[in-house]
Each structure stands twice: as C-alpha cells, then as structure tokens.
DNA sequence: AAATTCAGTGAACGTGCGTACACTCAAATA
DNA sequence: TATTTGAGTGTACGCACGTTCACTGAATTT
C-alpha cells in the first residue's frame, strides 16, 4: 500500500498519497456518488489508515473541492490544446463536437464527477462547480467572439450563445459518461447530435435576429 | 404525530401516513439529496417509529421510486391541463415557457427531486427517471407533430426537436429550482431565456433543413 | 551523530444506522 | 359479541462511521 519507494523524497511520497486519495475518491464516486462515500472507504481504497487522511485533507468536503479543481483543470487543458489546432478556427462546431467526445472519453471519471455533483452534491461542492462553469462560459465567449459569423454580434448575445453551448456541452457530456464502454457507434451519434445542436443555436440565432450586433438585441417580443 | 382522526377509516389512515412519509422524504431530500437521507430520518420526520416505515415501503429505494412516480404524475397533470388551453395551440413556445415556470414554482420540491436524482441518485432511481423522461419526449412529440410549422416534418425530426425541448425543460427547471424564493424578476428572465431557446430550436431547425419532411432528413453534412 | 519533523499507525470512543423481533390495541370482520 | 387483522410501538443487536489521541520510525535538519 503506497510502497515507500526509497529514492523518493518525503515531499514526493506525500504527493503520491494525495493523488492516491484523489484517485480513490474519484473511482468510488463513480458508482455511488461522491456525497455518499465515506472517509473510511476512501482511505481504505487509497491504502492508508483513516486517520492518515487528515494529513492531506481536513474533511471530505475539502477533498470534494480538490476534485472539482482537478476536473476543471483537465477540461481547461484540453480546450487550450484544441485552440492551437488551426482547423478549429475554420469549423468550431465540428471541432467542438470532436473535442467534447474525446475529452469526455479520456477523462470520463472527472466529467462524471462534475455532471453528478453539479446537481447532486453538497451545497459547497455544487457552488464551486457552478462558479467554474460560469467562468468557462465567459472564457468560451471570448473564443467565440473572434469567429467569422459571430464577430459583429453584441457581447450580450455572444455570452448567451456561449451559455447555450456550455449547457449543451454538459448535457452531451452526461450522455457520453452514461455511454456503455464498447459502443463507438453511439459515440458518433452523440457527436452528430452535438454538432446539430450547435448549428441550430448559431443558425437560429443569426436568422432570428440578423442585426444582433446593433440595436436592441433579442427583444422583439413577437408573441 | 399523525393524529388518529377517529372518523377516518383504517385504509385512509394508512394512506395518510404513506403521504406523510413521501412528504417527509421529499422535504428532507431538498437539503441533502435523497440518496443521503436515512430511513430513520424520514420516519422521524413523518412522525412514526423506524420499524413502521416497513408497513409502507420495503426499502428506501422503493420509496425513491414512489417519489419518481409522484413527481412525473404531477408534471403530466400540468401538461394535460395546459393542453386544454386553446392559446397553447397558437403559441406553444410562450405557453410552454409559462407552464414550465409556473409548474416548477408550484411543485418545486418534486422538480428538484427529479433534477437531482436524475444524475445523482442511485442507479435504480436514475433509470426510472430516465425512462419517464424518454416517455415524456415521445408524448411531447405527438403534441408537437400537430403544430402548424411542424406538421410536415419527418417523425424522426419531430422526435429530435422534442428531445431538445425536454432537455431544455430540464435545464430550465434546474434554474427555477435553484432560484431564490423572492426573485420574481429572475423568473421572468428564465422564462424569456426558455422562449428564446425554443425559438432557436424551431427556427434553426426549419432554416437549416427546410425540407425535413421528405428525403434524407438531417444528413446534408455541409462542413 | 544527535535532534527534529511529520506521514502513517492502531486502539478506542460515541453516534446513527438498518433490521429483527415480540408487543399492543383499535378497527374490521365474522 | 367474539375473533382476527394489521398499523404503529419499543427494545435490542451488530456494524460502519468520524474523530481523538498517543505512538512509531524513517527522512530531514541541525
């Protein structure tokens, strides 16, 4: 249990245990949800005694927040990498669909954690996730604002499209997470669905409100 | 604790207690989530002794399923009532936004329960909710298919729009549920958002794929 | 080489849990 | 009126939990 590799420094050993705790919590929360796993379960799974847990986190809640942080840093890294790809600029919709499915597949556990605890977790964890998602909407808005179709929209409108995109991302991530492992066919189906939805948003937005960039965006209440 | 009203029949008394248990579970799960409340907590809140719980439900899981059923029957009743309103046919989008916000406000607890346990609950409860939502998508598709704009779309396309509508409904319901109590301004904002999103879906769909009713719906992959 | 630090140990505690079992006593039935 | 039924009671059990505390012993510092 966490073999004390002799060549490792004490600090590195501690970090290894910390990661073991995080990994254990992530894995256990996949089957039962983070809110219902216990400090003792996590410790057992990580190969330490319950009391040793406190050397790394002061409570399960703090561990939860650490997992939120870890999950979003994973997501952010992926988005950053994707932006370097020049193809993305040309066709953000298809690229986003690809990135989404790939990212979620690679870090299924993290996405599942966020999807679940976003609504099901403790108040504190829920707020933390909400905050991260809000940040993410704003970041995505900056990226979107530079795109050909969108460049002359009002910033309010871009923000709203961004919100819809992120909402869709979350929904689709949920679907990928719940996807059985072998089914690559379903995967393509989800990607296609995500693409369609993003197109709907962009096209519907443009056509419904063609001069979004100028006066009174989005208020011609035509009922 | 569940005053034994003398005039009541034994059967009615039992039903009263059953409802008390359901209500207690619903209330308790609002703050902590259904999965993390205990049989003893529920019993205490309902005013009975833990062992009496078993006279009504064989386990907490069965109680959870009963709550799913109750929640969706509430939702279904509201949709049925709304369909009787002739205004709905003329402008389903605005009507749906109104119904959504009103319904969620009236049965906040039930919607909150569904929103949470849809992703955060136990496997069995989650599956039950998923099933109910799938049913609901199909039911909505039947309603949508009769509408002016949509009547000549292919049934696959109607099904997809229905799925997007329900997905949006769930998202917006989450927002209403998380809305602080006094804020009627936010409420109007959420309604407006819901309306916009539904318009986006309908308009985007029509414009992107105008002859959806006929051949090869939704496949002119124009990337 | 001696002193200090500190990640991990192991026993012990009080608490709330699910469930078993034998019970009561009013309503329903015969 | 006598008998049966069954919703709700009360005790008692074993178990997992979070947290406490004094501890060990290797890595680090002096």
Description:
Two copies of one chain form a homodimer. Chain A is mostly helical. Helices cover 74% and strands 0% of the residues of chain A. Chain A contains ten helices and no strands. Chain A has helices at 10-32, 39-46, 50-53, 60-84, 86-90, 92-106, 108-120, 123-145, 155-178, 184-208. In chain A, helix 4 (60-84) runs antiparallel to helix 6 (92-106), helix 7 packs across helix 9 (155-178) and helix 9 packs antiparallel against helix 10. Mean pLDDT of chain A is 86; it is low at 1-5 and 210-223. The interface between A and B is medium-sized, with 32 and 31 residues. The first copy, chain A, binds a DNA duplex (30 and 30 nucleotides) through residues 2, 4, 9-10, 13-14, 17, 38-41, 48-52, 54-56, 59-60.
Quick structural overview:
With 223 residues, the first copy, chain A, is mainly alpha-helical.
Straight-line distance between termini of chain A: 66 Å
The mean pLDDT of chain A is 86
Assembly annotation: homodimer
Shape of chain A: elongated
Helix vs. strand class of chain A: mainly alpha
Count, helices of chain A: 10
Count of strand segments of chain A: 0
Q: How would you spell out the order of helices and strands of chain A? A: HHHHHHHHHH
Largest interface: A-B, 32 and 31 residues
**Rg of chain A (C-alpha, Å):** 21 Å
Strand content of chain A is: under 5%
Low-confidence stretches of chain A: 1-5, 210-223
Q: Helix proportion of residues of chain A, in percent?
A: over 70%
Q: Which sheet architecture does the biggest sheet of chain A show?
A: none
């Amino acid at each position: 249990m966490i073999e004390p590799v002799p060549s490792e420094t004490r600090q590195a050993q501690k970090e290894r245990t910390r990661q073991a705790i995080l990994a254990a919590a992530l894995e256990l929360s996949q089957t039962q949800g983070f809110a219902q796993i216990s400090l003792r379960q996590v410790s057992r799974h990580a190969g330490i005694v319950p009391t040793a847990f406190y050397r790394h986190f002061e409570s399960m809640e703090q561990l939860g927040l650490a997992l939120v942080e870890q999950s979003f840093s994973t997501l952010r890294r992926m988005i950053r990498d994707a932006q370097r790809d020049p193809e993305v600029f040309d066709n953000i919709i298809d690229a986003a669909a690809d990135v989404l499915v790939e990212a979620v597949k690679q870090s299924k556990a993290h996405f599942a954690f966020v999807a679940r605890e976003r609504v099901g977790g403790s108040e504190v964890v829920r707020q933390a996730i909400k905050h991260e998602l809000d940040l993410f909407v704003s970041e995505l808005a900056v990226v979107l604002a530079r795109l050909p179709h969108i460049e002359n929209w009002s910033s309010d409108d871009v923000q709203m499209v961004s919100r819809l995109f992120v909402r869709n991302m979350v929904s689709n991530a949920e679907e990928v997470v719940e996807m059985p492992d072998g089914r690559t066919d379903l995967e393509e189906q989800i990607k296609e669905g995500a693409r369609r939805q993003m197109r709907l948003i962009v096209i519907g937005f443009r056509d419904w409100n063609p001069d979004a960039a100028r006066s009174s965006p989005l208020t011609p209440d035509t009922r």
